TrEMBL record:
Gene3D superfamilies: Glycosidases. SUPFAM superfamilies: (Trans)glycosidases. This is Chitinase domain-containing protein 1. One of its GO terms (cellular component) is endomembrane system. Keywords: Membrane, Transmembrane, Transmembrane helix. Residues 106-381 form the GH18 domain. SMART domains: Glyco_18. Belongs to the glycosyl hydrolase 18 family. It comes from Salix purpurea (Purple osier willow). PROSITE patterns: GH18_2. The keyword NADP does not apply. The chain crosses the membrane at residues 39-58.
Amino acid sequence: MTRKRDRRVAPSSDHHETGVKTPTRPDQFSEAAASDRKLMTIFIVFFVVIPAVSILVYRIKYAPNTDSSYSQFQEDGLVKTDVDYQEILDENSKTLKNESHRHYTYPVLAYITPWNSKGYEMAKRFTNKFTKLCPVWYDLKSQGTGLVLEGRHNADMGWISELRRNGNALVLPRVVLEAFPKELLKKKKLRDKAIDLIISECKEMEYDGIVLESWSRWAAYGILHDPEMRNKALQFIKQLGHALHSVSSSRNGKQYLQLVYVIGPPYSEKLQPHDFGPEDLQSLSDDVDGFSFMTYDYSSPHNPGPNAPLKWIRFTLQILLGNSGARALANKIFLGINFYGNDFVLSEGMLESPISGRVKDSYTSYKTTLNGMGLHKLTID
C-alpha cells in the first residue's frame, strides 16, 4: 500500500506580491534627518528671515527725516531753546546752500511784498522750493460809476521771465478788492466788469491766475452780517473762479488760470456771521484752487504778544475743517507762516511791523532776552 502524498498547491501566476518592504535602520535615520532639516529651514525662514526683512523694510520706509538741511542746523548749533540776541544778529541773513531740492510734494505759496527789498531776490534764488509765487501788486477800485484795476506799474516782467527760466513756479499776483462792496455785489454789470478786468490783465501779462483778497474788507464794511449780501459775496467768488478756469494758461494750453482766495482765521468755536467757516469752504471748493489761511496777527496793540502761537493755529484750523466734509479739503489750505515781527509801542497803543532791515536795529536797540522762548526751526523744502 502506497503512502498518500501531501499535495502542495503552487502559487498562481495570476496573483502579485502584496507584501510591504520593511526599511532597514540606516534608511530610517537618513529620512528622519532630512525631515529635521526641512523643519529647521521652515523655522528659520518664518521666524528669523521674514521678521528681519520686515524690520529692514520698515526702517527704510519710515526712517526719521534726517536730511542734510536739518543736519546743517545741528552742526551750526542753531537748534536749541536758549538763543542769545547776538546769535540772531549774526545768523538772521544766512540761508542754506540747498537752493533747489524739495523733500515734500505739497504746494507752497510765497508772498513777495514791495516793502521787503530782499523778497524778489530770494524768490529767484529759491524758486524751485515754491509752487506758487504771489507778488503784491494790484488793487481793484471804484472809479466814478465804474471800476479800475491799478498796479500794473508794479509788475516786473524781467523778474517773471527769470523766474520761469529757472523753475516752474506759477505767478499769481495778489488783487485786493477795494471797490465799494454793496455797489459791486448788487450790480451784475459791475461784477462782470470786475471779472473782465482781472482776466484781461492775466491774459495780457501772461499770469497764471491771481490771489484774491476781499473777505476781510467785506467784513469791515459789515455786509457779511446780511445773509443776502453774504450769499452774493460767495456767488461772486464762484463766478470769478469759474471764469478763470475757463481760460487756458498762455504758457501751458492744458492748464487753466487759477484762483487762490485769502481767508482769515475764526477766533472762537462759535462762528460769527463775518467768519469764514466749513460751509463756506465747501461751497467754494469747486471754483477755488487754494485758500490762503491768514494764521497770524494773533496779537494787537491793545493785547500785545506772539504773532501766531502754535496752539492757536491748530485751534483755528480745526474750526475751519470742522466736519468730515470740509476735512477732505485740507489739501487746499495754505497755512500762513509770517516772516515778520511786531514792535509794540505800548505807551501809544501803536503797532509797528519791522521788516528785514529794521529787525537788526530793533534787536540791537533793545538787546532782547530770548531765553526760554523755545524758538523753532523752519525750513521750506
